[in-house]
Write a structure and sequence with these properties.
The structure is a single chain. The protein is α/β, with parallel strands linked by helices and 411 residues long. It folds into 2 domains: 214 residues, Periplasmic binding protein-like II (D-Maltodextrin-Binding Protein, domain 2); 142 residues, Periplasmic binding protein-like II (D-Maltodextrin-Binding Protein, domain 2, 3-Layer(aba) Sandwich), CATH 3.40.190.10. Helices cover 40% and strands 13% of the residues. Strands 3, 4, 5, 6, 10 and 11 form a 6-stranded mixed sheet that branches. Strand 1 and strand 2 form a beta hairpin. Helix 1 packs across helix 16 and helix 11 packs across helix 14.
């Protein structure tokens, strides 16, 4: 019953372009020329010039909150290369809206969006609808800096099936954040967390996983910690996880539909403990949404469930704009530029490239990390194993089971 219902939900969500499985994507057909939004054509890689024939304007759609990490990189490139890109415009949206926004443009051959910055959800939704150029297989020789990905970022690149280019990366979590004024016995295992929640009903909580990065990271991290049969199969391999979450649910009053409310709840004392990630631990303290007195801790034996942001190019893009984007991405994947991804800790660390160390980041970023980072994070990142997140179709199934069997009536 679980599998039947989950697949029904996955099919429904596919209609709206949400979280679609990359494995079902058709070939990009990159060798066939199509009309671009500026009257140009997109075609095989040898038809794209080394540099644009004239400076281009790039219109960027951000559906991952990536702008805060990469705008500085892009602005710096534009300032240094006005002969390649004359200006950039930005718009933001949600990953579920990617297909509805981009597909009509691709189908009509009239692109108003030139580049999309997305997470795995929007990436896969677009792959399923044949919206993206298979940029790495067609132009990989012009993206040679991908050879310098750190290992877990390279693993995230493997999820892209050559349609996207990883531009930022972080190990994510799951971690625990807590109020030290209210918590003396900090849990170090899921079992201890359950016991704490039982002893302090209503003081632990997390957001609905479908709407929250820390929520979905906690959900996907539990199968590794609990020793489930198959952490990659939420339907048949997560018996221990679903049983655990049912027990934990007894002591959770409600599940917010966004991480922002989780931050509010722990900041105002409604809750005293939450699951978190490196970025959601650092940035809310740095920007004042959360008291800097909040502490964080790691589970004794856990696996990082990683995350990344991708750059994708809509089908039908003109050769001049593809040329400019390739030059831009190659530049973004240099250590000096990629180090800007440290930002204010939102995606800590943020860089995807070897050698993009904190000393290369802007002074403001260095100051934020110095004041609000954790001195044990880097050792933890280096020593704890990583796993890529669930592919979109199994993730949809996990969300559906959680919505029906755990959070129903509480979010």
């Amino acid at each position: 019953m679980r599998r039947t219902r989950a697949l029904q939900v996955a099919a429904t969500m596919a209609t709206f372009g949400m979280l679609l499985a990359a494995c079902s994507a058709p070939d990009s057909g990159g060798g066939t020329a199509t009309t671009g939004g500026d009257g140009g054509t997109s075609a095989a890689g040898d038809e794209v010039p080394d540099t644009p024939s004239a400076p281009v304007t790039l219109n960027i759609l951000d559906v991952a909150g990536n702008m805060k990490l990469t705008q500085g990189m892009i602005d710096a490139f534009v300032a240094a290369n006005p002969d390649v890109i004359s200006s950039v415009t930005w718009e933001s949206g949600g990953a579920p809206d990617v297909v509805g926004t981009i597909k009509p443009q691709v189908d009509s051959g009239n692109l108003s969006v030139d580049l999309v910055l997305t997470g795995t959800d929007g990436l896969s939704a677009g792959i399923d609808q044949d919206l993206w150029i298979q940029v790495v297989s067609e132009y990989g020789d012009r993206l040679s800096n991908q050879e310098n990905y750190i290992e877990p970022a390279a693993a995230m690149q493997g999820l892209a099936d050559d349609y996207g280019v990883v531009v930022t990366y972080y190990p994510s979590g799951p971690l625990i954040q807590y109020n030290p004024d209210a918590v003396d016995d900090v849990p170090s295992t899921p079992e201890e967390l359950l016991a704490w929640a039982e002893a302090h009903p209503g003081e632990f909580g997390y957001a609905r996983p479908a709407n929250s990065g820390p929520g979905r990271t906690f959900l996907q991290g539990l199968p590794y910690m609990l020793g489930d049969v198959d952490p990659s199969d939420p339907v048949n391999g997560w018996d221990k996880t679903w049983d655990y979450l049912r027990q934990l649910n007894q002591y959770v009053d409600n599940y917010p539909t966004g991480t922002g409310q989780v931050i509010t709840n722990i900041s105002d004392g409604t809750w005293n403990m939450i699951p978190t990630t490196t970025g959601w631990d650092i940035e809310p303290r740095a920007d004042g949404r959360e008291p800097n007195t909040m502490e964080a801790a790691a589970f004794d034996d856990f696996t990082w469930v990683t995350d990344a942001h991708y750059a994708v190019i809509p089908q039908g893009q003109s050769p001049d704009k593809i040329s400019a984007i390739l030059l831009l991405l190659q530049n973004m994947l240099t250590p000096e530029v990629n180090a800007m991804a440290y930002d204010t800790g939102y995606f800590y660390p943020g860089p995807a490239i070897e050698g993009a160390t904190l000393d290369l980041a802007p002074a403001e970023s260095q100051q934020v990390i110095e004041e609000f980072g954790r001195d044990w994070y880097d050792e933890l990142i280096a020593s704890v194993p990583t796993a890529t997140p669930l592919p979109p179709a199994p993730l949809v199934e996990a969300f559906d089971i959680w919505d029906r069997e755990i959070g129903a009536g509480k979010y």
